[in-house]
Design brief:
- The chain is mainly β.
- The protein has no helices and seven strands.
- The radius of gyration is 14 Å and the shape is elongated.
- A five-stranded mixed β-barrel has the order 1-2-3-5-4. A two-stranded antiparallel ribbon has the order 6-7.
- The protein has a single domain, classed as EutN/Ccml (OB fold (Dihydrolipoamide Acetyltransferase, E2P), Beta Barrel).
């Protein structure tokens, strides 16, 4: 899995029938502090993520392993919303609502 930050949404009213009902989000790879670092992907959302959230996503055949994306033609899927990232006992990222 990869870590990224949701930048926004993609709306498509005309699409392949297999993609009906999926929400698509723009995800930019980020570091463990939540700071953008890499490329951008369009990912199907399997967990209800939204703009500004740090997420875990998978690409390739792993992206089609969720209940939402099973056997659908997607190449990236958001599979988790990150609450905290801790490395060697130090918290590197804490979601704003998780800090309260």
């Amino acid at each position: 899995m990869l870590i990224g930050k949701v930048l926004g949404t993609v709306v498509s009213t005309r699409k392949e029938p297999e993609l009906e009902g999926l929400k698509f989000l723009i995800v930019k790879a980020c570091d463990f502090d939540g700071k953008p670092t890499g490329g951008i992907v369009i990912a199907a959302d399997a967990v209800g993520a939204g703009p500004g959230e740090v997420v875990l996503y998978a690409s390739g055949s792993s992206a089609r392993q969720t209940a939402v994306t099973q056997n659908r033609p997607v190449d990236a899927t958001i599979m988790a919303i990150v609450d905290t990232v801790e490395i060697e006992g130090a918290r590197r990222y804490v979601k704003a609502s998780a800090a309260d």
